[in-house]
Amino acid sequence: MWKTIFRRILLMIPQMIILSILIFIIADFMPGDPFRGLVDPNLDPAQLEAQREAFGLNDPLPVRYVRWVGDALQGDFGRSFNYQQPVVAVIGGRLGNTVRLSLLSVILTYLIGLPLGILAGRYNESVLDKTVLVYNFVSFAVPIFVLALLMVWIFGYNLNWFPSRGSVSINASTPWEVWTSRLYHLILPSITTAILGTTSIIQYLRSEIIDAKVSDYVKTARSKGVPISKVYTKHIFRNASLPIASGFGFTIVGLFTGSIFIEQIFNYRGMGYLFLQSINTRDYSVIFVLVLFYGFLGLIGTLLSDLILMAVDPRIRID
Amino acid sequence: MATNQDAEAAVLSDDMAASSPPMGIKVIVREFMRDKLALASLILLVGLLVTVFIWSFLIDQDQVTNVSLWDSYLRPMSFSEDPAREGMRFILGTDSAGRDIFGLLLIGARNSLLLGWSVTVVTSIIGIVIGILAAYYAGLIDNIIMRIIDFIMILPQLMIIIIFITIVPTYNVFTFALILIVFNWHGQARFIRGRALTVGRLDFISASKTMGTPSLVIMLREMMPNISSLIIVNLTLNFAGSIGLETGLSYLGFGLPPGTPSLGTLVAYATNPDILENRAWVWLPASTLILVLVLCINYVGRALQRAADAKQRLG
User: Fold this and answer.
1) Would the pLDDT of B69 be above 70?
2) pLDDT at B44
3) Which of A209, B91, B112, B209 is the most buried (most CB within 10 A)?
4) Considering Cα of A55, then A60, then A66, then A69, what sign does the dihedral take?
5) Does the distance separating the beta carbons of B167 and A137 come in below 8 Å?
6) Are residues A81 and A130 in the same domain?
7) What is the pLDDT of residue B23?
8) Which among B167, B244, B280 has CB closest to A26?
9) What is the mean pLDDT of residues B212-216?
10) CB neighbours of A105 closer than 8 A, spacing ≥ 6?
11) In the predicted model, what is the mean pLDDT of residues A160-164?
């Protein structure tokens, strides 16, 4: 087990190096540089050039890359020219918002997905099952930005049930007020995410349960006299939840990534919003670290998923 | 006597018809006749496509994109207030620059559909070629291809696409399509490889190899026909996905270049809270059209999927 984890982590190192080199090259292709647009147009071009030289922006690419890696290994991921802060501080400031939103979204996703999947599988061919199938089809097909816009329009603006933008009210002062206001702002975006996020959970659970119903171990349990409801909760559910467990690693790392569309539409200041802002302000140091961070999370997600699958299914050995 | 023989022959041929399994297009027709909702989606989809393509070629794009500040944000069904455009009626109202929303909707839908379809077709072709190559040669080639695909999979796809869109020196429809293709072929290739691997292990392929059939012939004439139904299903489902991706990117402002209206650019008006709340006629028709198109295409795709898999067929 530990040997596997260690080997997988070792394998991640070359992948991270390739990823960082690629993104570094891409970042180099981006038009303009962080100084353009920020400086006073009256500034002498020679002085600007001196600044660029001082910051090392004129050095060849490999030199800059090695310097960047050296700094990054010491925890210095560069400075955001837009925020005038270290990149780590900028990203850290947004991470909390994104984690809160994703956590509530994931909880809601499972709250909707698990019962619907189990019921649809248990009572398949029933009216409920057919309704769930229709819902599952729609949630698979609908693009998230269209649904999010409709939700904001209907529940945010027309019905005025929920705040339509931001992550916390400016009037909130006491900690209690701040947290309730935060939760209130989270409800609409997380419900939107959850509605569209249940597809694979329902799909897998339902078909696994339908397959399991006629399997031998269920027949054995029934003939032993195990009550039907217990067969479902103890025997079938454990087996049927295996495919979901295999995606759980990505769910965990997904807590940190957030959604560009949701955060943009709800004006929610998280990681996705930060990315769009950085693209628009050409804040390369932030973009670079964000993409690297997301790539890193992708690798961790694969590893976690395999480990979780190994933990819940003793038949699987991954080396 | 003769009539008796005829009757016998008729019965015999009836039996023959019943015993020979339905093939190809017949299965698909039967599937659609059984599932009325699929038939309705198909009719609606074809109707929409025909309307969009014929009508958008009939209307004059210059006239639609004609700017008139007199007509800014006219409500649906109102007449033009610009003396120069007297008598013009806007069925769906106008946008900030007085352009006809209905005309923009038709042209935008045409552009979105064309772009989505081209991206889907090209990514599918790349996916089929790479997937079949990986499955046929297996071993080292398969390993290399799969490592590349694994690597692309861990990239944050949407972010990378947006970054590329901002760094391309000459940004137009073709570079946009190219970027979408570069970051979308891997899903197809993975899917096709998985299916082709199962086909490649079948006995008739081994037999063909032993007989010395050239590899190219095996791949094109023997492996591909066996996954052709899956290819068609995948093409439909990915078409819907491509439309979603393009309109989403256009909504964020990283999609089709300005001057090429898309359904996404119409929805993007809703980034302005005032338009989102008070002028729904600007963005709501485009959003609805995206929803209807994507749902119809997906539903038709599902019906095709069932037709391709004998175990799932309804009829």
Assistant:
1) no
2) 93
3) B112
4) positive
5) no
6) no
7) 64
8) B167
9) 87
10) A189, A190, A193, A194, A197
11) 78
Give B255-280 pLDDT, tens digit per residue. 888 778 888 888 888 787 777 777 87
How many interface pairs between A and B have CB atoms less than 8 angstroms apart?
Answer: 96
CA A143 to mean position of chain CA atoms: 17
Contact B306, B31 (CB under 8 A): yes
- Give me the number of domains chain A comprises: 2
Please check whether residues A301 and A247 belong to one and the same domain: yes
Long-range contacts of A33-42 (CB under 8 A, 24+ apart): A33/A57, A33/A284, A34/A81, A34/A282, A34/A283, A34/A284, A34/A285, A35/A81, A36/A282, A37/A282, A38/A81, A38/A82
- If you average pLDDT over every residue of chain B, what do you get? 82
The rounded percent of chain B whose pLDDT value lies above 90 is 20
Same domain, A168 and A311: yes
By C-alpha distance, the chain A residue nearest B165 is A30
Same domain, A79 and A141: no
- Domain around A294: 90-316
CA distance B270 to B95: 11
- Domain range for B222 is 24-57+113-313
Residues A96 and A83 in one domain: no
For residues A51 and A184, state if they share a domain. Answer: no
**B78 located within any domain:** no
Counting Cβ atoms within 10 Å, is residue A124 exposed (0-12), middle (13-18) or buried (19+)? Answer: middle
Residues A69 and A112 in one domain: no
Contact between B280 and A145 using a beta-carbon 8 Å cutoff = no
Among A33, A54, A87, identify where a domain stops: A87
Q: Residue B144: what residue type? A: I
Chain B contact present for A140, CB below 8 A:
yes
Residues A138 and A196 sit within 8 Å (Cβ to Cβ): no
Q: Tell me the residue length of chain B.
A: 315
The alpha-carbon gap from B127 to the nearest alpha carbon of chain A, in Å, equals 22
pLDDT of A266 higher than 60: yes
Tell me which of A165 and B127 has the higher pLDDT.
B127
Taking the CA of residue B134 and the nearest CA in chain A, the distance in Å comes to 22
- Residues of chain A in contact with residue B244, where contact means CB-CB under 8 angstroms, are 143
Q: Per residue in B225-243, pLDDT tens? A: 888 888 888 888 899 989 9
Average pLDDT over residues B55-76: 71
Rounded Cα–Cα distance for residues B117 and B263 (Å): 14
Q: A142 at the B interface (CB within 8 A)?
A: yes
pLDDT tens track for B25-38: 787 888 888 888 88
Half-sphere exposure of A47 (CA within 13 A, CB side): 6
Instruction: Identify the pLDDT of residue B315.
Output: 57
Q: Is B302's CB within 8 Å of A260's CB?
A: no
DSSP lists the bridge partners of residue B89 as B79
Whole-Å CA distances, B51 to A159, B47, B55, B109: 35, 6, 6, 10
